[in-house]
Specification:
3 domains; six-stranded mixed beta sheet; alpha/beta; 9 helices; FAD/NAD(P)-binding domain
Length: 395
Protein backbone atom coordinates (compact mmCIF):
# COMPACT_ATOMS: atom_id res chain seq x y z
CA UNK A 1 0.00 0.00 0.00
CA UNK A 2 1.20 3.51 -0.80
CA UNK A 3 1.17 6.29 1.77
CA UNK A 4 -1.77 8.68 1.39
CA UNK A 5 -2.61 12.30 2.11
CA UNK A 6 -5.90 13.95 2.95
CA UNK A 7 -7.15 17.09 4.68
CA UNK A 8 -9.05 15.42 7.53
CA UNK A 9 -8.47 11.87 8.77
CA UNK A 10 -11.32 10.49 10.90
CA UNK A 11 -10.47 7.34 12.88
CA UNK A 12 -13.67 5.40 13.62
CA UNK A 13 -16.89 4.94 11.65
CA UNK A 14 -19.49 5.19 14.40
CA UNK A 15 -22.06 8.01 14.62
CA UNK A 16 -19.59 10.62 15.91
CA UNK A 17 -17.02 9.71 13.26
CA UNK A 18 -19.49 9.69 10.39
CA UNK A 19 -21.01 12.98 11.52
CA UNK A 20 -17.56 14.57 11.72
CA UNK A 21 -16.67 13.24 8.27
CA UNK A 22 -19.94 14.43 6.75
CA UNK A 23 -19.71 17.98 8.02
CA UNK A 24 -16.02 18.35 7.20
CA UNK A 25 -16.73 17.15 3.65
CA UNK A 26 -19.80 19.36 3.37
CA UNK A 27 -17.58 22.33 4.19
CA UNK A 28 -15.21 21.47 1.34
CA UNK A 29 -12.44 19.47 3.03
CA UNK A 30 -11.01 16.24 1.61
CA UNK A 31 -11.98 13.63 4.19
CA UNK A 32 -10.91 10.04 4.74
CA UNK A 33 -12.74 8.00 7.41
CA UNK A 34 -11.29 4.65 8.43
CA UNK A 35 -13.08 1.87 10.29
CA UNK A 36 -11.24 -1.14 11.74
CA UNK A 37 -14.17 -3.51 11.24
CA UNK A 38 -15.31 -4.88 7.90
CA UNK A 39 -18.84 -3.61 8.39
CA UNK A 40 -19.96 -0.29 9.83
CA UNK A 41 -22.50 -0.68 12.63
CA UNK A 42 -21.74 -4.32 13.38
CA UNK A 43 -21.59 -5.84 15.90
CA UNK A 44 -24.25 -3.78 17.64
CA UNK A 45 -23.30 -2.67 21.16
CA UNK A 46 -26.25 -0.52 22.11
CA UNK A 47 -29.66 -0.69 23.76
CA UNK A 48 -30.98 0.91 20.54
CA UNK A 49 -33.06 3.65 22.11
CA UNK A 50 -32.66 7.35 21.32
CA UNK A 51 -34.49 10.64 21.52
CA UNK A 52 -35.46 12.38 18.30
CA UNK A 53 -35.65 16.15 18.77
CA UNK A 54 -31.95 16.62 17.95
CA UNK A 55 -31.93 14.77 14.60
CA UNK A 56 -32.96 17.68 12.41
CA UNK A 57 -30.38 19.95 14.03
CA UNK A 58 -27.52 17.76 12.77
CA UNK A 59 -29.08 16.92 9.42
CA UNK A 60 -30.27 13.35 10.01
CA UNK A 61 -33.48 12.33 8.28
CA UNK A 62 -35.83 9.66 9.59
CA UNK A 63 -35.42 6.41 7.67
CA UNK A 64 -35.70 2.64 7.62
CA UNK A 65 -33.44 2.46 10.67
CA UNK A 66 -36.40 3.45 12.88
CA UNK A 67 -37.87 0.32 14.41
CA UNK A 68 -40.53 1.81 16.66
CA UNK A 69 -41.67 5.21 17.90
CA UNK A 70 -42.60 5.03 21.57
CA UNK A 71 -44.87 7.23 23.66
CA UNK A 72 -42.54 7.55 26.60
CA UNK A 73 -40.72 5.84 29.44
CA UNK A 74 -41.70 4.01 32.61
CA UNK A 75 -39.28 4.16 35.51
CA UNK A 76 -39.70 1.45 38.15
CA UNK A 77 -38.58 1.69 41.76
CA UNK A 78 -37.15 -1.39 43.53
CA UNK A 79 -40.69 -2.18 44.79
CA UNK A 80 -41.79 -1.61 41.20
CA UNK A 81 -43.86 1.44 41.75
CA UNK A 82 -43.91 3.11 38.37
CA UNK A 83 -43.44 6.68 37.18
CA UNK A 84 -44.46 7.43 33.59
CA UNK A 85 -43.13 10.27 31.46
CA UNK A 86 -43.72 11.12 27.82
CA UNK A 87 -40.96 10.85 25.21
CA UNK A 88 -40.54 14.62 24.86
CA UNK A 89 -39.30 14.90 28.44
CA UNK A 90 -37.81 11.47 28.97
CA UNK A 91 -34.18 12.12 28.09
CA UNK A 92 -31.76 10.83 25.50
CA UNK A 93 -32.88 7.19 25.50
CA UNK A 94 -36.54 7.56 24.59
CA UNK A 95 -38.37 8.46 21.40
CA UNK A 96 -37.24 5.98 18.78
CA UNK A 97 -36.19 2.36 19.13
CA UNK A 98 -33.83 1.79 16.23
CA UNK A 99 -31.90 -0.80 14.30
CA UNK A 100 -28.53 0.55 15.33
CA UNK A 101 -26.52 -1.14 12.59
CA UNK A 102 -28.80 0.39 9.96
CA UNK A 103 -28.57 3.79 11.66
CA UNK A 104 -24.77 3.71 11.66
CA UNK A 105 -24.68 2.63 8.03
CA UNK A 106 -27.00 5.48 7.04
CA UNK A 107 -24.75 8.02 8.71
CA UNK A 108 -21.75 6.56 6.85
CA UNK A 109 -23.74 6.77 3.59
CA UNK A 110 -24.50 10.42 4.35
CA UNK A 111 -20.79 11.06 4.92
CA UNK A 112 -19.83 9.32 1.68
CA UNK A 113 -22.53 11.18 -0.26
CA UNK A 114 -21.13 14.44 1.13
CA UNK A 115 -17.77 13.55 -0.42
CA UNK A 116 -15.91 11.63 2.32
CA UNK A 117 -13.92 8.54 1.38
CA UNK A 118 -14.51 5.52 3.61
CA UNK A 119 -12.05 2.67 4.16
CA UNK A 120 -13.11 -0.52 5.95
CA UNK A 121 -10.94 -3.12 7.66
CA UNK A 122 -8.43 -0.33 8.23
CA UNK A 123 -7.12 0.13 11.78
CA UNK A 124 -4.99 2.92 13.20
CA UNK A 125 -1.97 1.38 14.92
CA UNK A 126 -0.05 4.56 15.82
CA UNK A 127 -0.31 8.34 15.67
CA UNK A 128 2.21 10.22 13.53
CA UNK A 129 3.78 13.31 15.09
CA UNK A 130 6.20 15.93 13.86
CA UNK A 131 7.60 18.56 16.24
CA UNK A 132 4.91 17.62 18.77
CA UNK A 133 2.01 18.06 16.33
CA UNK A 134 -0.23 15.21 15.16
CA UNK A 135 0.14 14.83 11.39
CA UNK A 136 -1.85 11.66 10.73
CA UNK A 137 -1.70 7.98 11.59
CA UNK A 138 0.03 4.76 10.72
CA UNK A 139 -2.64 2.27 9.69
CA UNK A 140 -2.97 -1.37 8.76
CA UNK A 141 -5.39 -2.36 5.98
CA UNK A 142 -5.88 -6.07 5.34
CA UNK A 143 -2.54 -6.75 7.01
CA UNK A 144 -0.57 -4.13 5.05
CA UNK A 145 0.85 -1.09 6.83
CA UNK A 146 1.13 2.44 5.47
CA UNK A 147 0.78 6.05 6.56
CA UNK A 148 -2.09 8.49 6.12
CA UNK A 149 -0.99 12.08 6.58
CA UNK A 150 -3.43 14.90 7.30
CA UNK A 151 -3.23 18.34 8.91
CA UNK A 152 -6.27 17.39 11.02
CA UNK A 153 -6.79 13.98 12.61
CA UNK A 154 -9.94 13.13 14.59
CA UNK A 155 -10.19 10.32 17.13
CA UNK A 156 -13.67 8.80 17.03
CA UNK A 157 -12.71 5.28 18.05
CA UNK A 158 -15.24 4.74 20.82
CA UNK A 159 -15.20 3.93 24.51
CA UNK A 160 -12.00 1.87 24.33
CA UNK A 161 -10.21 4.68 22.46
CA UNK A 162 -6.45 4.39 22.18
CA UNK A 163 -6.02 7.15 19.62
CA UNK A 164 -6.58 9.94 22.14
CA UNK A 165 -3.94 8.52 24.46
CA UNK A 166 -1.49 8.11 21.58
CA UNK A 167 -2.08 11.77 20.68
CA UNK A 168 -1.16 12.80 24.22
CA UNK A 169 -4.59 13.53 25.72
CA UNK A 170 -5.34 12.24 29.25
CA UNK A 171 -8.11 9.68 28.65
CA UNK A 172 -7.74 7.43 31.71
CA UNK A 173 -10.99 6.41 33.38
CA UNK A 174 -11.74 5.17 36.92
CA UNK A 175 -13.69 1.96 37.56
CA UNK A 176 -16.41 3.96 39.32
CA UNK A 177 -16.88 5.75 35.99
CA UNK A 178 -17.46 2.60 33.97
CA UNK A 179 -20.48 0.34 33.55
CA UNK A 180 -20.28 -3.19 32.28
CA UNK A 181 -23.32 -3.99 30.16
CA UNK A 182 -25.06 -7.05 28.78
CA UNK A 183 -28.16 -7.25 26.61
CA UNK A 184 -30.33 -9.99 25.18
CA UNK A 185 -32.72 -9.65 22.31
CA UNK A 186 -35.67 -11.76 23.45
CA UNK A 187 -38.81 -13.05 21.80
CA UNK A 188 -42.09 -14.27 23.32
CA UNK A 189 -41.99 -11.57 26.01
CA UNK A 190 -44.71 -9.30 27.41
CA UNK A 191 -43.11 -5.91 26.71
CA UNK A 192 -45.33 -2.94 25.89
CA UNK A 193 -44.43 -1.36 22.54
CA UNK A 194 -45.59 2.04 23.81
CA UNK A 195 -42.85 2.41 26.42
CA UNK A 196 -39.18 1.99 27.15
CA UNK A 197 -38.85 0.62 30.70
CA UNK A 198 -36.13 1.21 33.29
CA UNK A 199 -35.74 -0.62 36.62
CA UNK A 200 -33.67 0.95 39.42
CA UNK A 201 -32.03 -0.29 42.60
CA UNK A 202 -29.98 -3.26 43.71
CA UNK A 203 -31.25 -5.32 40.79
CA UNK A 204 -28.51 -3.44 38.90
CA UNK A 205 -25.88 -2.01 41.29
CA UNK A 206 -24.93 1.48 40.19
CA UNK A 207 -26.97 1.20 36.99
CA UNK A 208 -30.34 -0.07 35.79
CA UNK A 209 -32.17 -2.74 33.85
CA UNK A 210 -33.68 -1.56 30.56
CA UNK A 211 -36.28 -2.86 28.15
CA UNK A 212 -36.52 -1.42 24.64
CA UNK A 213 -39.39 -2.97 22.68
CA UNK A 214 -38.56 -3.93 19.10
CA UNK A 215 -41.96 -5.30 18.03
CA UNK A 216 -44.91 -7.09 19.57
CA UNK A 217 -43.40 -9.79 21.76
CA UNK A 218 -39.78 -8.83 20.94
CA UNK A 219 -37.55 -6.61 23.07
CA UNK A 220 -33.97 -5.73 23.97
CA UNK A 221 -33.59 -6.62 27.65
CA UNK A 222 -30.34 -5.37 29.12
CA UNK A 223 -28.45 -4.25 32.18
CA UNK A 224 -25.64 -1.89 33.11
CA UNK A 225 -23.83 -2.30 36.44
CA UNK A 226 -21.07 -0.12 37.82
CA UNK A 227 -17.72 -1.91 37.53
CA UNK A 228 -16.64 -0.78 41.02
CA UNK A 229 -19.75 -2.37 42.58
CA UNK A 230 -19.30 -5.90 41.22
CA UNK A 231 -16.55 -8.46 41.72
CA UNK A 232 -16.30 -9.40 38.07
CA UNK A 233 -17.63 -7.83 34.84
CA UNK A 234 -19.33 -11.17 34.14
CA UNK A 235 -21.57 -10.50 37.17
CA UNK A 236 -23.73 -8.36 34.87
CA UNK A 237 -25.09 -11.56 33.35
CA UNK A 238 -25.89 -12.98 36.78
CA UNK A 239 -27.85 -9.86 37.74
CA UNK A 240 -29.72 -9.75 34.42
CA UNK A 241 -30.60 -13.45 34.50
CA UNK A 242 -31.84 -13.05 38.06
CA UNK A 243 -34.05 -10.11 37.07
CA UNK A 244 -35.50 -12.06 34.14
CA UNK A 245 -36.14 -15.09 36.34
CA UNK A 246 -38.24 -12.96 38.73
CA UNK A 247 -40.39 -11.42 35.99
CA UNK A 248 -42.71 -14.04 34.44
CA UNK A 249 -43.40 -11.93 31.36
CA UNK A 250 -39.72 -12.26 30.46
CA UNK A 251 -38.83 -15.56 32.12
CA UNK A 252 -40.98 -17.30 29.50
CA UNK A 253 -39.09 -15.56 26.69
CA UNK A 254 -36.36 -16.93 24.46
CA UNK A 255 -32.95 -15.32 23.94
CA UNK A 256 -32.07 -14.93 20.27
CA UNK A 257 -29.11 -12.55 20.48
CA UNK A 258 -26.62 -11.28 23.06
CA UNK A 259 -24.22 -8.33 23.12
CA UNK A 260 -22.00 -6.92 25.83
CA UNK A 261 -19.36 -4.30 26.50
CA UNK A 262 -18.26 -1.34 28.56
CA UNK A 263 -19.84 2.11 28.78
CA UNK A 264 -18.38 5.32 30.16
CA UNK A 265 -20.28 7.05 32.96
CA UNK A 266 -17.44 9.53 33.44
CA UNK A 267 -17.31 13.30 33.29
CA UNK A 268 -16.23 14.65 29.90
CA UNK A 269 -12.53 14.96 29.16
CA UNK A 270 -10.90 18.16 30.38
CA UNK A 271 -9.02 18.46 27.08
CA UNK A 272 -10.26 17.32 23.68
CA UNK A 273 -7.84 19.08 21.31
CA UNK A 274 -4.13 19.34 20.74
CA UNK A 275 -2.09 20.48 17.76
CA UNK A 276 -3.53 18.77 14.68
CA UNK A 277 -5.92 16.57 16.65
CA UNK A 278 -9.46 16.47 18.07
CA UNK A 279 -11.35 13.71 19.87
CA UNK A 280 -15.12 13.24 19.71
CA UNK A 281 -18.03 11.08 20.88
CA UNK A 282 -17.62 8.13 23.23
CA UNK A 283 -13.84 8.46 22.93
CA UNK A 284 -14.15 11.93 24.49
CA UNK A 285 -16.42 10.65 27.30
CA UNK A 286 -19.46 12.46 25.88
CA UNK A 287 -21.79 9.68 27.04
CA UNK A 288 -24.44 10.84 29.51
CA UNK A 289 -23.23 9.55 32.93
CA UNK A 290 -26.79 8.97 34.15
CA UNK A 291 -28.27 7.11 31.19
CA UNK A 292 -25.23 5.72 29.39
CA UNK A 293 -26.61 7.18 26.16
CA UNK A 294 -24.12 8.72 23.77
CA UNK A 295 -25.57 8.75 20.24
CA UNK A 296 -27.11 12.23 20.34
CA UNK A 297 -24.14 13.84 22.07
CA UNK A 298 -21.67 12.21 19.69
CA UNK A 299 -23.57 13.43 16.64
CA UNK A 300 -24.01 16.96 17.99
CA UNK A 301 -20.32 17.21 18.83
CA UNK A 302 -19.43 15.55 15.51
CA UNK A 303 -21.13 18.30 13.54
CA UNK A 304 -19.14 20.92 15.46
CA UNK A 305 -15.93 18.91 15.08
CA UNK A 306 -16.32 18.46 11.33
CA UNK A 307 -17.14 22.12 10.78
CA UNK A 308 -14.09 23.26 12.76
CA UNK A 309 -11.85 20.69 11.04
CA UNK A 310 -12.76 22.07 7.62
CA UNK A 311 -12.29 25.64 8.81
CA UNK A 312 -8.81 24.78 10.12
CA UNK A 313 -7.89 23.24 6.77
CA UNK A 314 -9.10 26.27 4.83
CA UNK A 315 -7.26 28.61 7.21
CA UNK A 316 -4.09 26.53 7.00
CA UNK A 317 -4.03 26.51 10.80
CA UNK A 318 -4.21 23.11 12.56
CA UNK A 319 -2.95 24.56 15.85
CA UNK A 320 -4.40 23.77 19.22
CA UNK A 321 -5.36 27.44 19.49
CA UNK A 322 -7.47 27.34 16.32
CA UNK A 323 -9.09 24.04 17.34
CA UNK A 324 -10.31 25.68 20.54
CA UNK A 325 -13.34 26.60 18.43
CA UNK A 326 -14.37 22.95 18.69
CA UNK A 327 -13.50 22.77 22.37
CA UNK A 328 -15.61 25.82 23.16
CA UNK A 329 -18.42 24.84 20.80
CA UNK A 330 -19.18 21.38 22.13
CA UNK A 331 -18.72 22.44 25.74
CA UNK A 332 -21.20 25.29 25.34
CA UNK A 333 -23.73 22.78 24.02
CA UNK A 334 -23.12 19.72 26.20
CA UNK A 335 -20.70 20.14 29.08
CA UNK A 336 -22.92 21.56 31.84
CA UNK A 337 -25.46 18.76 31.59
CA UNK A 338 -22.79 16.07 31.30
CA UNK A 339 -20.94 17.32 34.37
CA UNK A 340 -24.07 17.83 36.47
CA UNK A 341 -25.30 14.36 35.56
CA UNK A 342 -21.94 12.91 36.54
CA UNK A 343 -22.19 14.60 39.95
CA UNK A 344 -25.73 13.29 40.31
CA UNK A 345 -24.58 9.80 39.35
CA UNK A 346 -21.93 9.92 42.07
CA UNK A 347 -24.69 10.54 44.62
CA UNK A 348 -27.31 8.23 43.14
CA UNK A 349 -25.11 5.14 43.26
CA UNK A 350 -25.00 5.50 47.05
CA UNK A 351 -28.80 5.45 47.51
CA UNK A 352 -30.60 2.54 49.10
CA UNK A 353 -33.57 0.75 47.56
CA UNK A 354 -35.76 2.41 50.20
CA UNK A 355 -34.64 5.84 49.00
CA UNK A 356 -35.27 4.96 45.35
CA UNK A 357 -38.77 3.88 46.34
CA UNK A 358 -39.36 7.26 47.99
CA UNK A 359 -38.11 9.10 44.92
CA UNK A 360 -40.51 7.31 42.56
CA UNK A 361 -43.35 7.61 45.08
CA UNK A 362 -42.77 11.37 45.32
CA UNK A 363 -42.98 11.68 41.53
CA UNK A 364 -46.32 9.88 41.32
CA UNK A 365 -48.84 12.28 39.82
CA UNK A 366 -46.30 15.08 39.36
CA UNK A 367 -46.18 16.79 35.97
CA UNK A 368 -42.61 17.65 35.10
CA UNK A 369 -42.15 20.19 32.32
CA UNK A 370 -38.71 18.75 31.72
CA UNK A 371 -37.02 15.64 33.08
CA UNK A 372 -33.86 16.84 34.79
CA UNK A 373 -32.04 16.14 38.04
CA UNK A 374 -33.03 19.60 39.28
CA UNK A 375 -36.75 19.17 38.59
CA UNK A 376 -36.86 15.63 39.99
CA UNK A 377 -35.22 16.75 43.24
CA UNK A 378 -37.60 19.68 43.60
CA UNK A 379 -40.54 17.28 43.34
CA UNK A 380 -39.02 14.83 45.81
CA UNK A 381 -38.20 17.58 48.31
CA UNK A 382 -41.86 18.49 48.63
CA UNK A 383 -42.74 15.01 49.93
CA UNK A 384 -39.51 13.61 51.35
CA UNK A 385 -37.23 16.55 52.23
CA UNK A 386 -34.83 14.25 54.08
CA UNK A 387 -34.03 12.46 50.81
CA UNK A 388 -32.72 15.61 49.15
CA UNK A 389 -30.39 16.81 51.90
CA UNK A 390 -27.31 15.43 50.15
CA UNK A 391 -28.42 16.95 46.86
CA UNK A 392 -28.73 20.60 47.92
CA UNK A 393 -26.09 21.62 45.36
CA UNK A 394 -28.46 20.54 42.57
CA UNK A 395 -31.41 22.61 43.82
Amino acid sequence: MQDQKTDVLVIGGGPAGSMTAKWAATQGARVLMIEKRQEIGSPVRCGEGMSKEWLQDVGIRAGRWINLEVEGARIYSPREKVFEINEKHAGNEVGYVVERDEFDKQLAIDAANAGAEVKLKTAAVAILKEQGRVVGAKVKEFGQSYEIRAPITVGADGFESQVGRWAGLPTNIATRDMDTCLQYRMTNVDSDVRYCDFYLGKCAPGGYVWIFPKAEGVANVGIGVQVSQVKNPADARTYLDRWIEHHPGYAKGKKIDMVGGGVSIAPPLKQTVTDGFMIVGDAARMIDPLTGGGIANGCIAGKICGTVAAAAVHAGDPSKEFLQKYEKGWRARLEEKLYRNWLAKEKLVTLSDETFDKVIDALDGVRLEKLSVHNILKAVRDKYPEVTKEFEAFL
